[in-house]
Amino acid sequence: MRVFVTGATGFIGSAVVRELIDSGHEVVGLTRSDRGAKALNSWGAKAHQGDLEDLASLRNGAAASDGVIHLAFVHDFSRYADAGQIDRRAVEAMGTELAGSGRPLVITSGTLVFKAGQVAAEDAAPDLSSAASIRLLAEDAVNTLAEKGVRASVVRLAPSVHGEGDHGFIPTAINVAREKGASAYIGDGSNRWPAVHRLDAARLFRLALEKGVAGAKYHGVAEEGIPFRKIAEVIGERLRLPVVGTSPEESAGHFGWLSFAAGFDNPASSRKTQERLGWRPMQAGLLTDLDQDYYFNR
Question: What is the pTM of this model?
Answer without folding.
Answer: 0.96
